[in-house]
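Appendix B. Extra example for self-study. Work through it before the problem class; the solution is given directly after the inputs so you can check yourself.
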Amino acid sequence: MSALANPSPFEAALEADFNARSGTSEAQAAAFDRFAKLRLPNRRVEGWKWTDFNAALRSAEPGDAAEADIKPSPFSALDPLEFRIVNGRIELPDEPVSEGLRYGVVNPVATIPDLEDHPIASLNVALARKALGFEVSDDVAFDRPVLIRHINTGGGFSFAQTMMRISPGARLRLIETYEGEGAGFYSHLFHMVVRDGADFRRAVCQDMGEGGIVNSICAAKLDKQAKFYSTGLSTGSRLSRHECHVHFWAPGSSASINSAALVAGERHSDFTTDTQFRAEGCAVSQLHKGVAKDRGRNVFQGKFHVFREAQKTDAKMAANALILSDGAEENHKPELEIYADDVECAHGSTVGALDEDALFYLRQRGLNENEARALLIEAFVGEVVEKFEDEALRNIFASLVDKWLEQQ
Amino acid sequence: MLKIDNLHVAVSGAEILKGLSLEVPKGEVHAIMGPNGSGKSTLSYTVAGRDGYDATSGDVTLDDESVLDLSPDERAAKGLFLSFQHPMEIPGVQTMNFIRTAMNAQRKARGEEEVSAADFIRLIREKAKLVGLDDAKLKRQFNVGFSGGEKKRMEMLQMAMFEPRFAIMDETDSGLDIDALKMVGEVVNALRGPDRGFLVITHYQRLLDYIKPDAVHVLAGGRIVKSGGPELAVELEKSGYEQFIEAA
Ligand SMILES: Nc1ncnc2c1ncn2[C@@H]1O[C@H](COP(=O)(O)OP(=O)(O)OP(=O)(O)O)[C@@H](O)[C@H]1O
Ligand SMILES: [Mg+2]
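Solution. Structure tokens for the complete assembly:
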């Protein structure tokens, strides 16, 4: 049995929770051992410089999650197949399972080899009790969106996993929301495979209270000619980090990975992606937009790792940010690691303030200062919102941006 | 009536306007000509209320009310319109949505009713035709990828939509082809009326063939150094500004 050296109160609570369990598997014990070595990531750890979970959790109360009223979701208007993960507890939809789908509450995975050096993934593997298993059968294009609401209402910590398989030729739209007023720590480990010729579109929305400490990891493996889309919008929280790990294993697949963050007050948002190309002729386009105000902090880290065998890779990344206050922070780290020679890779990053000329122009036309600023910020973030092809979905995201702007 | 009284303006610490006085009575169109860098755009920015273009002394009044303490949008709501010498491209901003928002913002500030979506569409289609912009351009992001001339047409479109009480047109004619020049004349002449005034900044007499000004002023060295009738523009075209630069 591993023991943590000099644990913080929060780490001690995690360890006590682990030790109190009966029937933990060897794999879970091994995962906890890895965590015991890695520990909660802090600013001195590569990749975690701007998002220090150890510091945020040092002062967190390791208390229990409290039940609270669950607010209606704006995404309910889309008639989704709705799942909830409330403080780590998985709730299935209250309706018969549609043809072409299989889902249920299952045992979590024992390990994800690619993420074995990831401290929070290791912790999740050690501590998650259950996973949501979900499968779309061959060639099924499920027409309703699937909604997974991650709701955190209290303190303490909770872990959950989702395992998804999009079978060959299948198609699925997924919406994930991270919500709730809780001040606890929530870790979600989502791993999935998009099989040959399948098409998967994911929308992520974080709209939660300011106390939450969240890490979500989406690890997707793409087979031949698969399509993967992920577009996220976050207004941050105490500490929030959404990771997307996309691995191209077979030729001819493509991904579009986009994110926008609007952070005000003391909020923090982090979108971190790691895209690995291990096969020929795959393409990625990636766009991030960050808006930081007051003492808000936004982090974007994007990595392309192109292996020697991944010739004809086409990978583009752009990150643009607006800083609206002196105390606000934008931290960008684009990273290219390329071992193949016949590739097209590009990245660009810009950080600036609102354009004074444009502001004056809009005000000369009659918009007051707030209206003019809001219009320019909306236009700036709009490029990411436009990535949602479905109009109804796009409108919900656009209204979330408007709601944020109105609160400023 | 626009009245500018002994206006001094410093930009980045340098005095650009040095006691400029000018009156454009209601219903009149006045033209301003003057060498590059003489302060014509500075004057228009100051009247429109741009940050950094502050009057150190003097006054600007619109129908006897000083505007210098008003924000740019308050001035716009009072009916002041500036056609920019270099109109902006604003990526991500939908043209129709923006013009409608601006129109309603002005109306709201004046306590008027908002324009309905249907009336707005009708109006903008009509005015777009007048200024020679097709529907596809209205659906684009504001001015993005527009040619210089198209941007000027977009300025005229907005002027025609807002029907301002007083318009300053800062070199609207620069970079325009002959047809566009004629169009600018038509837009101005259609708006011209007893309650509306125009200040037309230009380098060329040509525009004034289409817009007959009631008066022409020469701005040099931060002041109006000469005023006259339309014939002054013709004279300037021949002789240039040298005499005024010496005088200023
Ligand atoms: N923001 C600024 N910062 C510094 N100097 C400025 C600024 N704006 C204007 N100036 C200076 O003020 C002077 C007047 O400029 P302005 O643009 O008003 O001239 P103009 O008469 O409009 O010229 P043009 O005919 O070329 O349009 C110029 O010398 C210019 O360099
Ligand atoms: Mg000028």
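Self-check: The longest strand of chain B covers residues 14-24. If your reasoning did not lead you there, revisit section 3.
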